[in-house]
Each structure stands twice: as structure tokens, then as C-alpha cells.
Amino acid sequence: MTKKVELKDISNLCKRRGFIFQDSEIYGGIGSVWDYGPLGVELKKNVKDEWWKRMVYERNDTEGLDAAILMNPETWKASGHVASFADLLVDCKGCKKRFRTDKLEGDKCPECGGELTEPRSFNLMFKTQVGSVEGKTEDVYLRPETAQGIFVNFNNILNTTRRKLPFGVAQTGKAFRNEITTGNFTFRSREFEQMEMEFFVKPGEDEKWYEYWLKERMDWYFSLGIRKENLRLREHAKDELAHYAKRCHDIEFMFPMGWSELEGIANRTDYDLKKHSEISGEHLVYFDSATNERYTPYVIEPSGGIDRAVLAFLTDAYRTETVRDRERVYLALDYRLSPIKVAVLPLLKKKPEIVEMCHKIREGFKGRYRVVYDDTASIGRLYRRQDEIGTPFCVTVMWIRWKTVKQL
Ligand code: ATP
Q: From atom 13 of ligand 1, which residue's Cα is the shortest distance away?
């Protein structure tokens, strides 16, 4: 029986086994910024690869893109981020803690019951400067979402690929938000990665495609092992919808702190393409050769967080068992996500022929999978270590005739 997983169980495992470290830890760290260690980088890469496979390689109606983090600042005026990408915040006059008004219940401080200040607006975009001449620099932003890189490249992609509607553009990459209310490990980071698809459709067909993407995205998480009871869809109420959205659902996961957003799926209508057309003067429109019409496509956007997906996969896979009165942790990860696919373990590391055979087996997987050799503990402990990080296959070399090794 696995007990309820706490966030600290996950963060302890991540630190202990090298999945995730606090960024610049030796200097005391920096709030809500994280580094992925030797196992974390593999897990995160596997999540991204599985997403890319499903969104690009397994389809015939999508393309990929890798747009830059820095963009002309006009982008963020057009998208509405300069004017309204802000959280409303209140401070507690007693304990001085800060809260987002949309996450508060009641009008008192949830920590100490103290009185709260009036709400203030706080823009979440990080600003920096471009240019090397003093006094001639220009303010630019670190992108707070990857989506806009797709919209501003709409004509480039259309002209180079000659796609017909419906078609999508997939992108993964870093995004930055100066989050105020942080905590909950990597769930709300200031630097994080997104996996976003902008799926362009003919106006009028948007509702059908919206329903399609709700199901398709839920299926992706289930196909990688997330248990049914840990995932749900929640539709945004009208007053909760972003300024560009006609409809929006959150895919919520049962994180240790409760149901929280893992991915958002929005019908962004033609808002972004129209705004960029208006402000840039470049017409981001589609010519429908079947009807001889020119129009602005609608867009359905499934937008997920890679760090939140990693946290969800770890949480879902985290199990404990008691063996001979001792509690052990193991990760029931889908093999496609496992950081290490095969561990080759010698029963006796003092026998050179066993060790040599182990290395031959490891070499056999070279270039295809992450495979490790480990002889730094007894065989039982070596197995437990691999169980704890979700390795699907362990190979133990127990005994071998020297002659056989020579023949290999
Ligand atoms: P929240 O309400 O939790 O702040 P959001 O609605 O602002 O999230 P979106 O703008 O819809 O988030 O971003 C799309 C996805 O990017 C989210 O579903 C989430 O997985 C991820 N994401 C957003 N902000 C962060 C963050 N600070 N840290 C990690 N992932 C994030």
C-alpha cells in the first residue's frame, strides 16, 4: 500500500537521486529556479520527446518550430501582455506574506488571519535590454509563453510548407515569469519550459477541433501511465477566461497539494493573428483556394508545462512498499520516460570475467539507450537503487565461463 505522497517526498527523492537541484545552490539558491540533474535531464528529455512524437511525428497535419526567447517588444504589446499580463496581489499587514487574489478564499490572510492590503497589479514579464551602446539600449522581455513565436511566424510557415487548414505548429522551449506567489517545488517556477501547439482551423470548425484536442491531450497523459483518478478536465467559467479566449479547459492533475493546472487548452479564436496583423501591418491571413476566400484562421491551443508534466509523472509513479519492516520507494514510471533503460549489474565485482561480460552487454546498447553499469554496492542494494529511479530492466551477470567471454 502506498501512503499519500507529499511534495517533500518527491523533492527529497529528486535531490537524493539527482533529478532536480536548487539552482545555484552553493550561493543559497535563487527563488523558484531549478536545475535538472543527471537523471532529471533524461526524464525531462523523454517527456519532450514523447510529446514531439505524438504532436509532430505521428501526425500529418503539423510542423515544428524553435523560435527565439527574445522578440521585438511590439510582439508583447500586440498580444496584450504589456497591458495585462499581471496578477492582482495583496499583502498581509500582519505577517507580510503576499497572495494572489484569485487564489484567496475570504478577505483575511490565510496564514495568520491578518488584514490584507488593497489589491495591486504586478506585471509578470522579465525585462532586459538589447544593445551595447550606453543610452541606446532598448527594453525587451524574456518571453512569458512560447506561443507568440508561432503567431509571428505564421506567414513564414505557411509560405514555406504550403500547408492547408487545418494545420498545427508545435514548439517546446523556455518561458519566464516573475511569479510572486511561488513554492510547491517546481510547480510554479520563474524559469520553466512549455510544450505548445497552435492548431489553426477554419472559423466555424473551431468547436469541433476544440473537443478533439481535449480528448487527445488527456489521452496522451493516460498513454504514458497517469492513472485515471489523478487527471480531470475543468472548464473555465466566463469571468475566468483570458481576454483572447472563447473557451478554455484546464487539464488538472492531483498534485500532492491538491488539484492544480497541468495544461491549458484554449480556443484563442482569431485574436492573436488579427492583433499582430493590425500592429505589424503584415496580413497574417489564409487564402482558401477551395472557396477563393481570404480569412483569419481560428486557433486551438493545447499549452502544457514540461516541468509540471515531469512533476506529475514523478508524483503518479511514486510508490512505497514495506519489505522486512523497512519502507522502500520505487518509481512505477512508463519505460519510455525512465531516465535509465537498462542497468547492468555484476553479482561479484571481484571476478574480472563477470565485469567484462557486464561491459560487453552495456556496449551492446551503445548509442540507443541510456544504459549504466554499477558495481558500487551489493546486488540487493543495486536493484533497490534502480527501482527507486524507475529503471525498467536490470541485467545481472552471475557466473560465466571464461571461454565463453573470449568467444563473444
Ligand atoms: P497558473 O494559473 O498556474 O499560473 P497559467 O494559467 O498562467 O498557470 P498558462 O499561461 O496557461 O498558465 O501556461 C500554460 C502552461 O504552462 C500551464 O498549464 C503550466 O503547465 C505551464 N506554466 C505556466 N506558468 C508556469 C510556471 N510559473 N511554472 C511552471 N509551469 C508553468
A: 303
How far apart (Å, rounded) are the C-alpha atoms in residues 284 and 268?
Answer: 15
Which residues contact ligand 1 via a Cβ below 6 A?
145, 177, 179, 188-189, 192, 194, 261-264, 303-305, 307-308
Mutate to test the pocket of ligand 1, among 88, 122, 192 (most ligand atoms within 8 A of CB): 192
Q: pTM for the complete prediction? A: 0.92
Residue located nearest, by CA, to atom 9 of ligand 1: 264
| CA distance to 102, 343, 406, per residue, from 17 (Å) | 36, 15, 36
The percent of residues above 70 in pLDDT, for the chain, comes to: 97
Grid cell locating 207: 468547436
Give the range among 26-30, 118-122, 279-283 with minimum mean pLDDT. Answer: 118-122
- Pick left, alpha or beta for residue 292 (phi over 0 → left; psi -120 to 50 → alpha; otherwise beta): left
Chain centroid, CA 188 distance in Å: 11
Name beta bridge partners: 172: 195
- Burial call 355-388: b when 16+ CB within 10 Å, e when fewer: bbbbeebbeeeeeeebbebbbeeebeebbbbbbb
Q: Which residues pair with 235 in a beta bridge?
A: 249
The runs of H, that is alpha helices, within 177-270 are 206-223
- Nearest-atom number in ligand 1 for the CA of 189 is 28
> With contact defined as beta carbons under 8 Å apart, do 173 and 165 qualify?
no
Rounded CA separation 308/263 (Å): 8
